[in-house]
């Protein structure tokens, strides 16, 4: 039994080290959220972010005055997101994690790389078009609620909930393929995608890794990558 005690100890130590490493970044985010609850500060910050936005393609970060930012739920969500980002296995230039997902229309289980078409770049949009990978809600109506979210969706308790919520997205972007993450949230974990995030996968490798949403979510960056790719490879049609 000593052995399992040792294993448990190692696990606890690893967890403690992880917490220590994540703490500074988390505290910074917490202070930011707290400050954002002062409306005069929030308006100034949003204005600044709006000015910095250099492309009309990128969705503006918007927060209504009525949304409280510093809550127990928001802190939990931020912690969860930072932890996933830290522990993700997807890294630029490395093999793309081939996680399990479920096709929304066919309700069939596949692997994420099964959605690649030959040698064409596959855009993974953890959040709304191309191959959309629908993951756990960052703003469920029973968690960190945001009245700016287009739909009020509770936390998915089962795969059926998740598939039903993803159907909403299909009606909005009917031309794109939508898959949902499995209930172990393995794609979310592998790609550190909580909130939202963009990736491009080609030849089973990660060739573009966008920043963490909402502030790091840049469609303009993705477009630049694709344009560059088109220039270098002639008129290869990229699925959009
Ligand atoms: C996956 O996400 C759902 C929320 O959509 C959550 O209820 C569930 O506990 C998560 N699963 C795991 C294994 O963390």
UniProtKB/TrEMBL annotation:
GO molecular function: thyroxine 5'-deiodinase activity
GO biological process, one term: hormone biosynthetic process
InterPro entries named in the record: Iodothyronine_deiodinase (IPR000643)
Keyword Oxidoreductase: yes
Classification via Pfam families: T4_deiodinase (PF00837)
Record keyword ATP-binding present: no
Ranges that cross the membrane: 15-39
Matching Gene3D superfamilies: Glutaredoxin (3.40.30.10)
Keyword tags: Membrane, Oxidoreductase, Selenocysteine, Thyroid hormones biosynthesis, Transmembrane, Transmembrane helix
Coiled-coil regions listed: none
Function description: Responsible for the deiodination of T4 (3,5,3',5'-tetraiodothyronine).
Similarity field: Belongs to the iodothyronine deiodinase family.
Protein's name in the database: Iodothyronine deiodinase
Originating species: Fundulus heteroclitus
